Amino acid sequence: MEGGNSLSAGPEGKKKKVTYFYDSDVGNYYYGQGHPMKPHRIRMTHSLLLHYNLDTKMEIRKPQQARMNDLCRFHADDYINFLKSVTPETQHEQTRQLKRFNVGEDCPVFDGLYSFCQTYAGGSVGGAVQLNHKHADIAINWAGGLHHAKKCEASGFCYVNDIVLAILELLKYHERVLYIDIDIHHGDGVEEAFYTTDRVMTVSFHKFGDYFPGTGDLRDVGHGTGKYYSLNVPLNDGIDDQSYQSLFKPIISKVMEVYQPGAVVLQCGADSLSGDRLGCFNLSIKGHAECVRYMRSFNVPLLLLGGGGYTIRNVARCWCYETAVAVGEELDDKMPYNEYYEYFGPDYTLHVTPSNMENQNKKNFLDNIRNKLLENLSKLRQVPSVQFQERPPETELADQEEDEDDDARPKGRLWNGELSESDPEEQKPKLHRNRESVYNTRRPSTSLIDQVTKRMKHEENVSTSHRPDEDSKEGGQAIENPSEIHEKEDSEAAYKALYQTVYPGPVENSSGYASVVAAAESSQGLGSKATVLVEGSAAKNITIVSTLEEAQPSISSSLICNESITCGQS
């Protein structure tokens, strides 16, 4: 039996071998104007941890792109073929497939969509491979953690479920894998994939109620062989560090004791932080990272993944700090200068103060949840053991240039951790089709973006009930729409960074700054020309090579270039 004795938390200070996956191109992908999901946050995270010198404490690897056969170990062939073929230019010809695969508003078609999926999935599967071969104690892929994607459809900004793919990889070497999700949204895609097996236990801490995706009731515990191997921790608005840890530690401690996993996957969605644009929890960065610190202390192979997170400066802060926790380093709260320094004003610190929003999770509510989940864990039979007969073939992710031979792909697909030679439709789990009976909970009829829009309108109408966080105006003035304040401040930071791209150094010349802002705002998009005039300096002709929409400057690859520079080159 794997694990032998029960697992318990150990000394935190022990150094770990950490492998960190990062692709410098990931920040270039763009979901579209107005969309909350911004891959640029991964680039900001990477820049920040580099300037904290965390790169010297771990191995950095560029993920190899997952091939079609890698993605089809969980996803349906026709769905992956669709992601591979659809483009913004051709999507109008594929309206039936767009609807069939739930690709549209929440999950739009954008340039490089399939490559984006290959990249973030490759990082997560690559991390699992590193853990399997004992090349690392902890593997990190902040671009991963897209937990809503289903076998045959996109959902909640997620196209490919890299988490399921990584867990399937871990199951080649480990009898049992534990999945923990601290994103504010329920980890429905991962739970659904393993709902009927005891080889994967899923534990999700999430906001529950009239909130996307509407699943994750306390009563949803798994089905058949998987009964009691799905744990859901439904929470209310405003939960703080102390309340969160009063559930997280006793529940996870008991899980580790009774389940004894060979590996752990921790999805670190940062939308559970205080002040997130789409979130409604009140966790500090240290409180969020305490989950990472606690899981690290069990000395079990650990895969750390990203997830949600829509106030991107705080996402970068959080994942940089959690990288430091993984490698066992302490960081100065004063932030080092970096390419995105202006985003982190006015304090320029790593940590931010949580708001004073009401914690709607009362003690008796938390006690009832904890007691019920501990009761469910007591119903588990002896730790499940799997007899390995023939290990599935090793995963060898291909380089991007490598040709794929679709005809040579193995036709078997992993379901519930078992390799099958064929998977006729009538033998597959019916979880998605029978969701109403399996989950016993109401699913919101609107999309995630619809719910965000509804919430913003509500906040605008109730201007006195805003969240008074670090982005509030001084003087106690009511903010009608906190989201607009976030956008405005991020845009100002982006403009300052834009100015510094043309004129390196502090933003001191107001006329120059105004000229840069005017040039960007008046531009006609990519490739348009503008002239920046600054008193006392030579005029500079610039070309807008990346729009400034949604405060998403591709600064490190030249947001703007003067005429003598080729974009992306020095």
UniProtKB/TrEMBL annotation:
Residues 35-324 form the Histone deacetylase domain. GO terms for biological process: epigenetic regulation of gene expression. Residues 396-407 have a biased composition (Acidic residues). Residues 437-450 have a biased composition (Polar residues). GO terms for cellular component: histone deacetylase complex. It is found in: Nucleus. Keywords: Chromatin regulator, Hydrolase, Nucleus, Repressor, Transcription, Transcription regulation. Residues 457-474 have a biased composition (Basic and acidic residues). It catalyses: N(6)-acetyl-L-lysyl-[histone] + H2O = L-lysyl-[histone] + acetate. Residues 384-482 are annotated as: Disordered. SUPFAM superfamilies: Arginase/deacetylase (SSF52768). Its EC number is 3.5.1.98. One of its GO terms (molecular function) is histone deacetylase activity, hydrolytic mechanism. Belongs to the histone deacetylase family. HD Type 1 subfamily. This is histone deacetylase. It comes from Adiantum capillus-veneris. The lineage of its organism: Eukaryota, Viridiplantae, Streptophyta, Embryophyta, Tracheophyta.
